[in-house]
Amino acid sequence: MPNFNKLPGKEKIQYIIFFSIPLISFLMIEFAARGSFISIFTWLVNEPIQFLLSLVLFYAIYVFLWANINHRGAVALIFSIFGIIVAAVVGCKREILGIPLMPWDLLLSSDLTGLFEDVGISQYNFLSNGLFILVLSINIVIIALIFIFQKAKYLNKRASIISPIICFIVVAAIILTLPKADISETATICEEEGYIRGFIVSAQIWSEMNSSKVAMAGSSDANINFTYDFTSKEATTDINPNVVFIMSEAFWDVTLLPNVTFSEDPIPTFHALAKEGISGEMVSPTYGGVTDNTEFEVMTGFSLKYLPYQTNAYTTSIKKAIPALPSYFKSLGYQTIAVHPNVGSFFNRDVVYPLLGIDRFFTQAYMKDAKIKGAYISDDSFANYIISEYKQAKKPVFMYNISIQNHWPYTKENYYEDYDITIKSKKNLDKESMTALQNYTQGLHDADASLKKVIDYFRTVDEPTVIIFLGDHLPALTDQLGVYKKLGYIDKSISDSDLYKGIQGANISNQTMFIQSQKILKTPYLIWFNYKTDIEKGETLSANYLGIYTISKLGIELPPFYNFLLDYSTKVPVNRYYLSIDASGMPFIETPSIYANYEKIYNKVQNDMMFGDQNEKNLFTVK
Description:
By secondary structure, the chain is α/β, with parallel strands linked by helices. It has helices at residues 9-18, 20-34, 37-46, 48-69, 72-97, 109-116, 130-149, 157-176, 189-193, 195-209, 268-273, 291-300, 313-316, 325-331, 349-356, 379-392, 431-458, 482-486, 496-501, 510-521, 543-552, 560-571, 596-611, and strands at 242-248, 260-262, 278-283, 335-340, 360-363, 372-373, 376-377, 397-402, 423-425, 465-471, 522-529, 536-542, 574-576, 579-581, 587-588. The protein has 23 helices and 15 strands.
């Protein structure tokens, strides 16, 4: 490589242009991961060393490629294409689900590709973001200039040998000096260390999860002995009812939206049934997608709070049989069944369900006569399959059923042939937002009708049966929280990423953030009995408690750990990443320190059962 100071001015400019590529790619990826350049500047000011280490990593990789390819134009093109693709994927993932691409998402690539194919390009607003397009355009111009003015290969043989060695040492040093983080830090590691370095740290934590080396969240010592008087909860009845969970895709009470009116109640059945049984609100572990994470918490009683932030539990963390509601009911003599009108391999359910104790998994592969509504199997057909599976099952039966009709995307015009409900907005919503709201509301109405079909059937059944109906998460109707903000349900001053994570925003107070977080995470649930008329107001609970809370209402015996969760839920009824609410209704970013003992017990048992030797297995059987 020639001496830069001795180069003619024109060649100096060529080198400056050539070496601007890593900087542009670096800024583009960080912008995609964070959502704003202001956040990048704040990171530079607060964490200058981490900023420089991340930037140096990009340059080291860039020079390594140059030394091996020895053609500036080709190197710039390859590196730029890589940066553009990564930025596009990271930005779109963050925009839709509130968090950038993480290592564990790679296991979902085939599943998510199928879903994203149904999404119109217009819904990926990140790709039409003015700043992204500007940076992309600058990138293209620079690459063109490099190819036009490329005249010679400036790396001699000696430089071609020494440069990659030096770059390799630099990259290795940067990686080896990455901080050692525990699970609780995966939520912020990409912001603190930069996206690529944070991605690597998260991958390291992930790789340790199945080796039992992963540290408990927030604890420096996973082997400390904690004490709690574990006892079973005795049964208060000799009835063993059928238990039927129905998790309805993105089910939520859309009438809570302000500045919008409906020609009729979209969910009349749910509202009527809420007066016949136990109804309340569940605080979901997710927003806009990743249904199986809600399943995981409801069925196991374990918490995503003790796993890497927004990981997918089914694909990353369940590699052996673990205690869950299906396996518990199976131990009581129940047949266990799951019905889901999608491919069985989606979210790895066909592998995970047997590990949770589910005997029979009835998927779309067996639904030859199913009717399609929109893009998916209709909720009406879904209801029929729940009933038919129940009829054929050995009693008593435990069923966990997940619908799919009202899955996103919602922005396609004329998605349904007919619409039963007319919607009017006082805010003059744009066409895309109105289309999304119309499609989603029709899907809700159909879900409500399917609930009515199931309830009407079980009213005629002699066997005592309890139906638990719930929504898994609120829908991302267009771009993340767009419609909610436009209608005034969510404060416009709150950024999508701040709200999703529940941390304090730049222009708002913590209290405002907490209120907004709860609004966007709460979905309704209903517990209905065909053999008794207990009517009470249900608790507001995070999903990790809901399954245990439900079976506590049946009067059957509870194993010690489930009784522990029931106890803890009375003290901190909402307990998730970035949001804990105590019994008085006071919200906190982290669980109050007075409950540290509960947290450590919870974490310790979960860690042992999922990644350890399952020494605490006795806590999941009745004594």
